[in-house]
């Protein structure tokens, strides 16, 4: 590889996603990147994270960090409602930006962020990391015609009890929404990426809060996050503050006639389920992430008059192969884009399409009816 300029990297947000995904992946870039500084308005978070990661400078004011340093890349790892504010500040400081999902909560905000990127002559991408790895292989299968014409998909992540019991995921004014914002955005992006990014037409959806705002509901199936670990110990969860949905369900329609059914929960009285179903007129594909199978991707089709099931051996999707490979692959890819001129696999129109589905989903749930693309914030 040619000698490319070392990337000077800053991070805004010292919480869960920074400590578990971004910081380890940045460090794995080795000499290609210099992890220079991190900012968080919680001094205790900075003290905690310094025990695990070699970060020379810490700041409780992100704007001070941006003023005092000249970054090539800034990672935005903060609450959803701050993504736009911090991304624009980083772009104006002269940095390229990798922003945690969702990029924004409305299409209008996302477009304003891209306008700032254009003015600055910098790149802005959302951390839509679930499209990396196995879903890249699924995309190739679809492009090769293995499924035929794709016309329907189901995506779901059902946690029977799995409310994140750390941070502010459960507070609407900080996070904007619940499991659809937190998890569903990943599955939505990966599916749209795999099927060629058809454009949104409409969404009919519902959001529910039935369990997680009760004191007798168990929470946090994600494992203990206290003690001597890189995770910041949870301190601020209170079910009385729960103000987002604990279950979201709906159907999105697209301009090629395709439909996608979405189901995402943090708390639901059904068995755990996790994965993708993508259906074409030649075959269907099921990527069952919750099965524990060594090869979790199966094709369902027919050979003549006989039905056939075929397990695919995709090494990167094998059980045990998912050591946060999505973030790692995406952060390395973004470095290749900036240092080597590689074409970015995350396109602006794809990011805007994902935000449009999410905005329409929540608006449909709020209004209790189907919402069309023309009703969204950038069209009003």
Automatic annotation (TrEMBL):
Occurrences of domain Gfo/Idh/MocA-like oxidoreductase N-terminal (ranges): 7-125
Q: Which residues form a coiled coil?
A: none
Any Pfam family the entry gives: GFO_IDH_MocA
- InterPro entries the UniProt entry points to: Gfo/Idh/MocA-like_OxRdtase_N, Gfo/Idh/MocA_oxidoreduct, GFO_IDH_MocA-like_dom, NAD(P)-bd_dom_sf
User: Where, by residue number, does the polypeptide cross the bilayer?
Assistant: none
Instruction: Give the GFO/IDH/MocA-like oxidoreductase domain ranges.
Output: 135-285
Q: What name does this protein carry?
A: Gfo/Idh/MocA family oxidoreductase
